[in-house]
Task: inverse folding
């Protein structure tokens, strides 16, 4: 049976279409104001790629910040569960998942059976979330998706002493006024974000085989800085786009559900 | 009779006070410039003008505040905590607890009988509960920061800001503006959020004696009245001087002690 997973985040919406555990198509788009609109549109995108229609989908699981507003889902699951399932199915050796979202950051530890053993998240403070990078990208007038590559060209080591997004932004403005290079400032910002996220992960004990999921995982600067801050190299997700892991996990939940009902 | 000065260069505003015989003969407040040394020169100039004296008349000058290390003309620098404690006691001799909200921090201090700081707590890590929070919100609302306080009194149905973080609260405020909520109701919610955060800090020092507030936020009636409710105590006011210049007054008083001591 063909199933789908739909992950509506605060910044992006993702959908995955799956048949018997194989990905048929996926789609990612910038979220609209209304989660329901994002869900319909991203699902259409994925269906078109798979050359299918909504009628072909036997079961859909929704997740993410806007999961309660998705009009067409049969079931909803938490982001923690979906990211865990998506990562585990992609790479069974994984024991820890770090997910930096647009408005939060989460660290999840898995047991040897892929079940969630512990998790922790920060959604109270913008520092250590995707918003931190968004604010800084705007302050430095660099497109969000270029941050990582630009940071990689840094030649001078700088440090940002403030964790608070508001205070760090002021610090960035002073560094710009002092004539510091954008690449060096960005590199320092990536390390600052990594420090914050790694202390979150450390609070539930860091385990080996760590992967990063979510859109921020595509930022090479964060990937590298977080590996350094954790003192452990992050693993790549076997060629699967880290941004669709939540939707993928939701699709696996849908897949399991249809197998259960068949049995 | 010696003329002395105190100069408080903060992150948002700079203040200078000229004193003679423990009386203020001139004072000035300006918005801080990018360079603390420029702020210091400009604000002292203003204070000298208002006192009708020249730089040569100043026997001793103490600098304080965030930019104190960059002031060129001072004889000595002293911490903000000490200056605010000293200034507050001069403004209100019965002051036992001082709340000072700066542009980038918030401090609460308890004073002993001699006006020295016996206990204090501060937040300079998070913009929430500092002057910056109000500055960000005033900008979003497109009102002058001085007018933000008055909105509380006009509010009919104040909003409640769910997030403490300035970044998240700013996003909430934008949503309220876009959905047509009256400015007064949003402003009142902002002042309450600010007061709630400060109240947590105040309660950690277990306030005693008369409570006095220094810094520019002391002039925000919305924050002050909500804070009074939250800590269950009145915040004393005085007409003796502008609470915003308390740090500079303290610096000037310490200058005077120096001159008299030597």
Result:
């Amino acid at each position: 049976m063909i199933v789908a997973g739909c992950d509506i985040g605060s910044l992006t919406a993702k959908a995955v279409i799956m048949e018997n555990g194989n990905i048929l198509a996926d789609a990612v788009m910038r979220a609209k104001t209304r989660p329901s609109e994002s869900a319909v549109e991203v699902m259409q995108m994925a269906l078109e790629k798979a050359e299918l229609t909504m009628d072909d989908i036997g079961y859909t699981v929704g997740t993410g910040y806007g999961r309660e507003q998705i009009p067409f889902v049969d079931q909803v699951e938490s982001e923690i569960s979906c990211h865990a399932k998506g990562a585990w199915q992609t790479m069974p050796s994984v024991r820890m998942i770090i997910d930096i979202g647009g408005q939060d950051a989460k660290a999840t530890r898995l047991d040897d059976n892929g079940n969630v053993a512990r998790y922790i998240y920060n959604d109270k403070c913008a520092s250590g979330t995707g918003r931190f990078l968004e604010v800084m990208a705007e302050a430095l007038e660099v497109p969000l998706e270029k941050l990582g590559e630009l940071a990689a060209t840094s030649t001078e080591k700088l440090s940002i002493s403030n964790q608070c997004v508001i205070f760090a932004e002021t610090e960035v403005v002073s560094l710009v006024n002092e004539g510091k290079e954008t690449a060096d400032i960005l590199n320092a910002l990536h390390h600052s974000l990594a420090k914050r996220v790694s202390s979150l992960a450390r609070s539930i004990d860091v385990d080996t085989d760590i992967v990063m999921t979510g859109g921020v995982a595509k930022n090479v600067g964060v990937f590298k800085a977080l590996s350094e801050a954790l003192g452990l190299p992050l693993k790549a997700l076997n060629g699967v786009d880290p941004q669709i892991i939540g939707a993928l996990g939701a699709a696996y939940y849908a897949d399991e559900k249809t197998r259960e009902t068949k049995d | 009779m010696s003329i002395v000065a105190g100069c408080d260069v903060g992150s948002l505003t700079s203040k200078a006070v000229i004193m003679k015989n423990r009386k203020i003969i001139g004072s000035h407040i300006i918005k801080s410039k990018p360079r603390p040394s420029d702020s210091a020169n400009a604000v002292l100039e203003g204070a000298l003008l208002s006192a009708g004296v020249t730089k040569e008349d100043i026997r001793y000058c103490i600098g304080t505040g965030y930019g104190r290390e960059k002031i060129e003309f001072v004889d000595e620098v002293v911490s903000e905590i000490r200056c605010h404690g000293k200034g507050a006691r001069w403004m209100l001799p019965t002051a036992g607890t001082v709340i000072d909200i700066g542009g980038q921090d918030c401090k609460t201090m308890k004073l002993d009988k001699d006006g020295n700081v016996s206990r204090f707590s501060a937040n300079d890590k998070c913009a929430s509960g500092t002057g910056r929070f109000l500055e960000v919100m005033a900008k979003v609302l497109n009102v002058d920061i001085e007018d933000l306080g008055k909105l509380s009194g006009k509010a009919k149905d104040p909003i409640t800001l769910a997030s403490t973080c300035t970044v998240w609260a700013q996003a909430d405020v934008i949503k309220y503006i876009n959905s047509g909520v009256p400015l007064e109701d949003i402003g009142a919610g902002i002042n309450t959020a600010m007061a709630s955060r400060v109240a947590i800090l105040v309660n950690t020092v277990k306030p005693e004696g008369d409570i006095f507030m220094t810094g520019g936020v002391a002039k925000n009636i919305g924050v002050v009245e909500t804070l009074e409710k939250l800590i269950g105590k009145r915040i004393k006011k005085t007409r003796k001087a502008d609470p915003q210049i308390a740090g500079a007054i303290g610096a000037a008083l310490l200058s005077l002690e120096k001159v008299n001591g030597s």
In short: Chain A has two domains: 1-91+238-263, 93-236. Chain A has a mean pLDDT of 94. Chain A is about 40% helix and 20% strand. Chain A touches chain B at residues 103, 124-126, 131, 135, 162-167, 177 (CB under 8 Å).
